[in-house]
Amino acid sequence: MEMWDTHVHLDQVHHLKDTVQRAINCGVTHWVLVAIGPQAYYQQSQCLKVLAPLGLRFLRSIGLHPEHPYSLNDIREVARLLEQEPIAAIGEIGLPTYRFLTRQEFNRNWDGLYIQLGWAERKNLAVIIHAVHASTEPMLRILEEFPNLHRVVFHWLKAPKEIITEIVHRQYFVGVTPDVIWRQRDQALWSLLPPSSIVLETDSPWPHHPDKSVSEPADIAELIHYLNHTFPNQRDWAWQTTLNARRLFNQELPEHPSQVNNRAM
Ligand SMILES: [Zn+2]
């Protein structure tokens, strides 16, 4: 059975080898590595060399993070990487919420967002969106200008109820984190989501629970365990979220384990 962590900042992960090995031991099989710019992408490439013996299965994503001001050179460099590297998704891109950008920085990021969405549309890539709280609705309005983009995920979503409903209605995906185990806000989000829209992520090493200083991909195993025990009659959440992640990132769908077992008999 596969388990996907659809949002990991590998370049920022502490104690890299131990953390990755721990997740593999817990059964986390597939990783989407999110680079917030060219520098992060190169650092992740270095990490992957170190991790090669561990047999990590991963997809790569790059996009200029909306909370950071970026330069025209960064935009050009991302364009070059998209031509030359095996990249499955653009992101995380979107709109800022937490940081103040100057008018010039904001305008450049705004143009950069449209440019990157245009690339995703032309190259038929998945899009990982960072646009939370008050930024989610304007992001939805921007996406209306890209009607051919269907494989879109709102990562670690926090938004008003009616906006979440609109995201679901538009059949975008939603990234759910281990916060759903303990946080009422995220449980309310969960209750609005159809199972086919949910992908799981940690955004490692960004911390979640106040008792933990960092998150790590191994937390996905705990999250799936929680989901299977809390909603046992609904479905196997490792299987459901694997199907969703594979649809989002345009990967071939696996056979259900029961079919494989039947054939083996
Ligand atoms: Zn992130």
Topology:
Blueprint lengths: L3 E5 L7 H10 L4 E6 L2 H14 L5 E6 L9 H13 L4 E6 L8 H21 L2 E5 L5 H8 L8 E3 L6 H9 L3 E4 L7 H8 L6 E3 L18 H12 L6 H12 L8 H8 L1
Parallel strand pairs: 1-2, 2-3, 3-4, 4-5, 5-6, 6-7, 7-8
Pfam families: TatD_DNase
Protein name: TatD DNase family protein
InterPro entries: Metal_Hydrolase, TatD-like
Which descriptors would you attach to this protein?
265 residues; 10 helices; TIM Barrel; alpha/beta
What ligands does this structure carry?
zinc ion
| Neighbour order of strands in the largest sheet | 1-2-3-4-5-6-7-8
Helix content: 40-55%
Instruction: State the distance separating the first and last CA atoms.
Output: 18 Å
Helix and strand run: EHEHEHEHEHEHEHEHHH
Mean pLDDT: 94
Oligomeric state as shown: single chain
Highest CATH level, the class: Alpha Beta
Helix tally? Answer: 10
Question: How big a fraction of the residues is strand?
Answer: 5-15%
The CATH topology annotation reads as TIM Barrel
Are there runs of 5+ residues with pLDDT below 50, and where?
Answer: none
Shape: globular
Architecture, according to CATH? Alpha-Beta Barrel
Number of strands: 8
